[in-house]
Amino acid sequence: MKTELTDLWKGIVDLLTQYINEHNATVARQLATAMDQLLKSSSVEEFKQTGVTIRDAWIEYSQSIFSCEFRASGVSEISLSDAKKMIKYSLENAKGNTEDLIKMSHAAYDLCNKLQHDMNATFDMALQCISSSALCMGLIHLTMLHSELLVQRPYYKCPNCGSLKLETREHWEPDVDGAFKVNKLTCAECGWFYIEEMGGMSGVEG
Ligand SMILES: [Zn+2]
Question: Which contiguous run of DSSP H or E holds residue 168?
């Protein structure tokens, strides 16, 4: 029975890893490695190692969805190893119920830290660590794709006023043939905008 259940969870993690691999091959490799090693593990030290590997995967993953260099002026610098903050800022502007996904992801990340220091770490805890992290990463990616954040969200806060209310709007830019449609990231609070397609042109609407 135990083997069957392990196979079931390995199958689930494998599917999630394949999905994540479409977007981030490094993270997918870390997840696959953690799973392979766990299946050969039998000691507390080895179970703890799962926490270390998955924690690294979270840091790699959160860096791939968050652009630290575009943080708003006045916002304190975010450490590139602070996965929880990067996840929070990246998801805060996404569509849907991201509040709970942020909580789930933070819990999955906390489990990595707990596991890597737990002198009583078990196989089941390590499996829970890999499974919950892979699931959360898959859900974050789905959310980001549905919000089109991965392609057009270089800012998570308005650099002019610090508001989180940034919206992507359609904008018609006139040219010799009439006009062409571009995406315009606009602050609903102060009218600041950013047009990515036009070489990062930005300003504040009058
Ligand atoms: Zn603003």
Answer: strand 166-175
Domain membership of residue 198 as a residue range: 166-204
Report how far ligand 1's centroid is from the alpha carbon of 162 (Å): 6
Structure-block tokens of residue 201? 């042109």
Domains of the chain: total:
2
Same domain, 130 and 34: yes
> For residue 21, what are the CA distances in angstroms to 13, 77, 126?
12, 29, 21
Query: What pLDDT digit, counting tens, does each position of 93-131 carry?
Result: 677 789 999 999 999 999 999 999 999 999 999 999 999
What is the C-alpha separation between 19 and 105, in angstroms, rounded?
17
- 85: its two tokens: 């903050």
Ligand 1 (single-atom ion) residues, CB below 5 Å: 158, 160-161, 163, 187, 189-190, 192
| 139 plus 176 within the same structural domain | no
97 plus 137 within the same structural domain:
yes
Helix (H, G, I), strand (E, B) or coil at 97: coil
Q: Residue 193 Cα, ligand 1 centroid: separation in angstroms?
A: 8
What's the pLDDT tens digit per position in 58-107? 999 998 887 654 455 556 777 878 999 889 888 876 777 899 999 999 99
